Amino acid sequence: MQTLIFGAGNLLLSDEGFGVHFIKYLEEKYRFGDDVELYDGGTLGIMVTHLLEEADRVFLVDVVEAKGEPGDIFRYEKEEFLLGKLPIKMSPHQIGLQEVLTLSELRGRTPDQVTLFGIIPYSYEAGVELSPLLEGKLPALAELVVGELREAGHRISPV
Fold it and tell me: pTM of this prediction?
């Protein structure tokens, strides 16, 4: 089973780049087998349709605007994430990812399992570093995702 971990976000706007920082964190801390692909999706949106459609399982990591406190992490599955069904507003590139999944669904090419881990940002200030609050959330989210991958049979080792 091919699994894609897709980090979205804009690295120039502090916490907006959380998904991309998450991918970098995984690359620094873990070694994955060939059946797991880590992808820094930035703000590419529709440009990555093929990656999402080729995977059996997809984990998306991005910031979300939802009720809660900065640093709160939410989990949404495919049915909730598709355009018009997600009860929250995602970051500025939301339309790209949601539309990509909707188009893929219409074409019958959406992976069976799509999970979004969304985190409420603390800051959208210009800057290439995460706020300390969100920086501190990287290890726990990584452990959660790595744990799920191991349960699914993927071999992962620490660096």
Answer: 0.85
